[in-house]
Structures are given as structure tokens and as C-alpha cells.
Amino acid sequence: MEPTIYEAVGGYDALVRLAHAWHQRCLADPVASHPFGHPGQHPDHLARLATYWAEALGGPADYSAAMGDESHVERLHAGNGEHHDLDERAIACFEAALGDADLPDDPRLHATLAAYFRWGTGLMARHPDSPDDVPAGLALPHWSWDGPVTT
Ligand code: HEM
Prior knowledge:
With 151 residues, the chain is mainly alpha-helical. It has helices spanning 5-9, 11-27, 45-56, 62-66, 70-77, 84-97, 107-124; strands at 143-144, 147-148. The protein has a single domain (7-33, 44-148), classed as Globins (Globin-like), CATH 1.10.490. Strand 1 (143-144) and strand 2 form a beta hairpin. Helix 2 packs across helix 3, helix 2 (11-27) crosses helix 6 and helix 6 runs antiparallel to helix 7 (107-124). It is globular, with a radius of gyration of 15 Å.
């Protein structure tokens, strides 16, 4: 059977490296650094982000089991107005981070991860007006080698 994206990238540890690399790229960017570094953000942000990505990419469902659902995550990102420039900068930082994180040198894997992140950024931007607009009980969305998983 074909490996999951989670397996192909190298599992949780590889996704933690990717989360760190993305965060470093964002912090170094004049636009993408703005959302980060405010007081009150979760101290385990990068581990939680990697756990979320693991689940979305075919790994264990630990985020949903222990941390939250999609509604929780989208509420964290909601209510900041439209911010297309920020989103594009964050996507560019992610694409650069793919080269920083010591991942398998596999162009299909890199393209799949980049497509996932672009899609995910769109999901996070769905509720610009208020976190109250995010419906309750959303399931964490999954991404496959063929794009979004629809159940
Ligand atoms: C424009 C792009 C993005 C920006 C600027 C951004 C920013 C942030 C910030 C500032 C936090 C910390 C929130 C807090 O603790 O108060 C956060 C948490 C998080 N973000 Fe994003 N994010 C972006 C895209 C994404 C994408 C594409 C995903 C998933 C595919 C994602 C998943 C998460 C998760 C899982 C958390 C942690 C939630 C938790 O603490 O349980 N983010 N993000």
C-alpha cells in the first residue's frame, strides 16, 4: 500500500522540524511575523501544530483526541479581518521551510505539502469577522496525495 503523507515525510519528528522551520521563516519576515510573539499564545504551539498536521496528513488522530477539534483551531485564526498579503507571505515561508527542515528530497512530497498548506491557510481565513462565526463540532480536515479527503 502507498505510504501516507505522514509516513513519507518522516512522521511526527519531521513535522516538528517543519513547524520550527516555518515559524523561523515567519519570524524573519516583516509581514508574516506580526501574528506571532503576542502574549497568551500556547507555549507548546509548535508541538501542537505538528500534532495537527500529523493527523491531517494520515497519522495518528492525537490532536482531535487530546487537544481540540477543527472549530477550536479555526476560532484561533478567525476575527482578524481579510489578510491576503499575510497569507501569501506565510505560504511563501512554508515553501521555503520545506527546504530547511531536512525532509526527504522528494519533489512530489514537497509539492503535496505545499498544496496542503495553501489549502489549510484558506480554511483558516474562512471567518475574518469573528470567531463566533465558526460552526461548532467541525472535524479536522484531511489531505491525501490526491488533495482534500472528502468523506
Ligand atoms: C497565515 C497563516 C497562519 C498564521 C499567521 C497562523 C498563526 C497562528 C498563531 C498566531 C497561532 C497561535 C494561536 C494562539 O495560541 O493563540 C496559531 C496556532 C495554530 N495554528 Fe496557525 N497560522 C497560520 C496557518 C495555519 C495553518 C495553514 C494551519 C493548519 C493547516 C494552522 C494550524 C494551527 C494550529 C493547529 C495551531 C495550534 C492550536 C492549538 O494551540 O491547539 N495554522 N497559528
